[in-house]
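User: Hey, quick favor. My workstation is busy. Could you predict this chain's structure for me?
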Amino acid sequence: MSKPVRIGLIGYGFMGRTHSNAYSQVGHFFPKDSVTTGHHIVRQAVCGRDEAKVKAFAEKWGYASYETDWRKLVARPDIDAVDICTPNDSHAEIALECIKHGKMILCEKPLALNGEQGEKMVTAVEKSGLPNLVWYNYRFLPAVTLAKNIVAAGELGRVFHYRANFLQDWTISAELPQGGAGLWRLDAAAAGSGVTGDLLAHCIDTARWINGDITEVSAVTETFIKERTHTATGKKQAVTIDDAAIFICRFENGSLAQFESTRYARGHKALYTFEINGEKKSLQWDLHDLNRLNYFDHGVPGDRRGWASIHTSDGDHPYAGNWWVPGLCLGYEHSFTHELAEFLKSLDDPKAPKAYPDFRHALGTQYVCDAVLESARTRQWVKVKKA
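Assistant: No problem, here it is.
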């Protein structure tokens, strides 16, 4: 008989909605008799500070109950796994409390405020043996997973270059405050960093998954607006997050890379792209056309060489066969369902290799983020710690 995984969700904002959608969809499209053989999701409880709002969220998304104190939710015996969808400064505290109570953990990215905090989380969760996941979701889009599979098969030959960017424009106005429910990402105390931990972390996770570990970085960051009114005090305070970050780096396999992220690229809402150049083939992907993987093969006859576009909607493509008929598209939200399906699959066979990022992998990404910020401060190359 399939075993329930009773979810306790902490936080009901944007990420709370995306995860709740995955919880509602995974059993329909990854049924228990295929991928998720031995476990199924139960939306048991959701937690938020505003009772009226969290009650409404519970009713809308099908949670059986709600709490206004996360500590009460974590301590409940009818909760098997806790999903942490809170600002970054609370990830460690909540995760460590979950471990004390024997709860599985699904944690939003980044893992923690910094590597030191992340190390404590990794040590505790690995000692406990509890299953754990970090929601680096983009790798679970079919085109991105296909890129991983092509590289892992050695089809590119030697990899020379990796480049990625993640561009937004939502913080350009100097009138935008910092702090509070909607703007905590602009407050270093809550976020830890700016675009490095928020956007570049996604790029770094995907890059490390596809191309291996990053060994050293050289970075520059900038804070374009130096002061913003804080929502908690109503007073102007210094802005200490990075509004933009650019870094170059070396991978363990000898390839070179460049990464860029900013919230000051007017006209870009969420432009995330990556490209990989190998001796035999190149790959390119764009979040704005997320079902397509662009593919260049130098091995074809010269008069037929050129960039091809693979529409990853066929049943042979990763995850796509669980959804619609070939040619119909998937979206951003499906990546969370795919990651959740992989997590449930791992509960069936805990000894099998994990097909999702756990705390330790996320710690490796955290170390790269830390090195980027240190390099920008010191204006020197910085070696990246191994997770």
